[in-house]
Amino acid sequence: MPPSPASADQAVALLRELGAADIAHPGGTLLAHCQRVQDGLALWGARPALQLAGLCHAFYGTDGFATALLSPDRRSELTDVIGAEAEAIVYLYASCDRTATYPTLADADGGFRNRFTGRTETPEPHLLRDFAELSAANELDLARIDPDFRRKWGAELLALFTRFRPLLSRAAWSDCRAVLAAAPQD
C-alpha cells in the first residue's frame, strides 16, 4: 500500500521548498533520487511509513551526503508532514555513523553509533530492519543510475548487504544481488 497521496504530496512540496529540486545528485537532482528511493521501496512492498522515509531520507543529510535540508533540531517540521513513524526512520538513517555501525549492524550485540550525539545506541529490531532496507534502496538507486559508482562500490556494497541480509526483505535482498552482482568490471 502506498503512503497517503496527501502526505507524499506534502513531503514533495517541502522537498521542493527546501531546494531538493536544485541540488545536484547522481541521476539528476536530490529530489529525483529521493523519489526513486521511495519507488524502489514501494516495489519491494514496504509499508507506507518506510516509503515516506525513503522519500525524505536525506532531510538531515547523511554520513555519505552532507547536504542537509533541515537540521536535526527541526525534526518537528518533518514530523508534521510525514508523521512520527516515518520521521523516526529518517532521523535514524541520517544519524548513522557508517564507519562505526556498518561492520556489526546485523549482529545481536551490534551497536548503532549516532553521528549527531556520538552515543552508541541499540535501536529496536524493526528500526534496524527499516534502516537496512532504506540503506539498500538508497545505494541500489545510485548503482543503477551510475555505472562508475557501481564499478567502484558494487563489490563492497554487495558484501555489506550480504552482512545485512538477515535484516532485509526477500525482495530487497534479491534486488541487491541482481544489481550489485552484475557490477561492471574495469
Structure in words:
This protein has 186 residues and is mainly alpha-helical. The chain has nine helices and four strands; from the N terminus they run H-E-E-H-H-H-H-H-E-E-H-H-H. The longest helix has 21 residues. 40% of the residues are buried. The mean pLDDT is 93.
Can you write the helix and strand succession as a string? HEEHHHHHEEHHH
Low-confidence residue ranges: none
Helix count, DSSP H or I runs of 4 or more residues:
9
Mean pLDDT: 93
The rounded distance between the terminal residues' Cα atoms is 40 Å
Largest sheet: 2 strands, antiparallel
Classify the helix fraction into a percent range: 55-70%
Rg over C-alpha atoms, rounded to the nearest angstrom:
15 Å
Principal-axis shape equals: globular
How much strand?
A: under 5%
**Class computed from helices, strands and strand pairing:** mainly alpha
What strand line-up does the widest sheet have? 1-2
In total, the number of strands is 4
Furnish the topology, listing elements before pairings.
Layout (H helix, E strand, L loop, with lengths): L4 H13 L6 E2 L2 E2 H14 L4 H9 L18 H8 L1 H12 L2 H4 L10 E2 L6 E2 L3 H21 L1 H17 L6 H11 L6
Antiparallel strand pairs: 1-2, 3-4
Question: Would you kindly provide a brief summary of this structure?
Answer:
The chain has 9 helices and 4 strands.
